[in-house]
Task: structure prediction
Amino acid sequence: MKKPVIIFLLVFISFWGVNAQEQPYCTVDNMALISPINKSKGIKLGEDISKAITAFGQPTSVKDYPFETDGKMGKLYDFRGNKLYVLDGKLDGYEIINSSLLVGKISGITYKVGDTIKSTKEVIKTGPPGGPYQTTYKDTHTFFGYSVTAGSSNSQNQSYSYSIDLVFKHGTVTTDSFASLLFGSNKKLTFISTGSY
Result:
């Protein structure tokens, strides 16, 4: 009777452990753009662009921007190099390249371009019970609770060495929107963007 219970527990723990490490989802609430001066002011995807102007002041520039997939003309707001894409007066997406805007939860935890990945070494011992053991090490990287993938590549005209790709959820519903966080070889956040598939 003990063996089936132990096997069940091992399977349950390993399954739970895999799911706990994978964090592919985020919410619009956790990816808001926030004023570094007043963290209670910001704008979430889908909100009226006037909230951005209230939070960040006047944009550096505003230009027409074609949303080809939607067949509509929108606007591209530039806030000190950070781009906010606006469709029908609402924030549709963004590209953050510097620390003049924060990302996170309004009046909550935030992060910015320049923040660093947390890296730890996981010790893995293999071998028979009682030894001898062979010890190996695995680098694990996280950023504000999200697992970070190591691997150099290019995306959205940005070179990176580490990345996080998240899919937005609204309640329990998975959306067609995503967020990407890209990090340089120095493990510092260099680029944050949102988009749709």
Observations:
- DSSP finds two helices and 16 strands in the chain.
